Amino acid sequence: METVKFIHCADLHLDSPFVGLKTLPKPIYDEMKESTFHAFSNVVDLAIDEAVDFVIIAGDLYDGEDRSIRAQLFLKKELERLEKEDIHVFIIHGNHDHLGGKWTKVNMPFNAHIFKTKAEMIPYTTKTGSKVHLYGYSYPKKHVLDNVVSEYKKVDGATFHIGILHGHDSSDRSHYRYAPFQLKDLLDKEFDYWALGHIHKQRILSENPYIIYPGNTQGRNRKESGPKGCYLVEMNPYRTEIHFHETTAVLWESVELQEETIEQFDDLFQQLSHLKEVARQKKKPVILDIHLRKKQLSSTLQEIVESEELLDLLREGEEFENPFVWVRSVSFSDEYIQPIPLEGNYEFFRELNETLLQLNDFERPLSPLFSHRVAKKYVQPLTKEEEMEIKAKVQQMFSRLFSMGD
């Protein structure tokens, strides 16, 4: 019976700049900066250990269209490791690393099959004689807004048909609508598997056939928390089995303190230190966000948290630990925007607070940043959670200003 075994990964984002983390201690920042490289090395290790037939990379191998020579040479070296094991690699390029950019070209090894800017089929025969047709499309430019699935044409002559697409499920309104598709579009092609990329969270859109986003191989910010990795896929004409494998080099984690009430600083510090040690048991470096609830703490402890003095204590000496657990933030998860109760004749503060409560348009004032030729490579639009966090911090500032004038 014919079988095929492969790895499906996507969104490597090699050489991500991690610009917002440059204030970290150098050993920790250096490890973060190398994390996207280490994560893909973990993918290659898995491919070799499992003796797969091939590897699929579903777009955004690099973090930018002006891919660095270093990132290209690293990719070449890893693909050469696979070539020595006779493992082929099928690659499409996405919106971040589209083929319309300008860069110094580094030639990839013979085992690398890169799909062109028009949908095409590449045939492949495994060492055991199983015939596979792989279909893919690389972005010719950053903004591909059309449904390109219609260009994928099934070609007879193989036992397995696999589609590779870097695109956006139209039913999900929380991401950029690059190469948008509807689930029905993919199902109508009657392929045996769809290897998707672009969304950085694991997501299975269908199980018959499997249509999967593996997520990215390495989280790059707090919105990309938890294990990241790839799928190991084993297929025969009657059954497909999938197994997720973690490739994360540095974990982003978020935890909440569960204690009901804490009165003393020593108790708070002990509880938070315990959360750090629990994270350290994951046996890999962790960037940790800790969430508290204001009702857990006395007003004195709340002030210590807001002053960031506690944060400094939790970070002390962490750059010398292996693995490190760097506490990125200690914040209050129940800090919602509420009108500030102002007494007396403080109309100016009233108007400021009212304006804050009504502020919903963050996009317009930030548009120069997001459209800037260089800056747009390093920033992402704010999430609703981040907008609420900004409002909460501004309101805290208003409260302090009000109390100073009291």
Secondary structure elements and pairings:
Blueprint: E1 4-9, H1 26-49, E2 54-58, H2 69-84, E3 88-92, E4 112-114, E5 120-125, E6 131-136, E7 160-166, E8 168-169, E9 180-181, H3 183-187, E10 193-197, E11 203-207, E12 210-213, E13 229-236, E14 239-246, E15 251-256, H4 265-280, E16 286-292, H5 299-307, H6 309-315, E17 325-332, H7 347-358, H8 363-371, H9 384-404
Parallel strand pairs: 1-2, 2-3, 3-4, 6-7, 7-10, 8-9, 10-12, 15-16, 16-17
Antiparallel strand pairs: 1-13, 5-6, 11-12, 13-14
Helix pairs in contact: 1-2, 7-9
Separation of termini?
82 Å
- Runs in which pLDDT lies below 50 for 5 or more consecutive residues are none
Specify the overall morphology. Answer: globular
Helix content: 25-40%
Features:
single chain, 406 residues, alpha/beta, six-stranded mixed beta sheet, 9 helices, 23% strand, globular
Summarize the structure.
This protein has 406 residues and is of the alpha/beta class. It is built from nine helices and 17 strands.
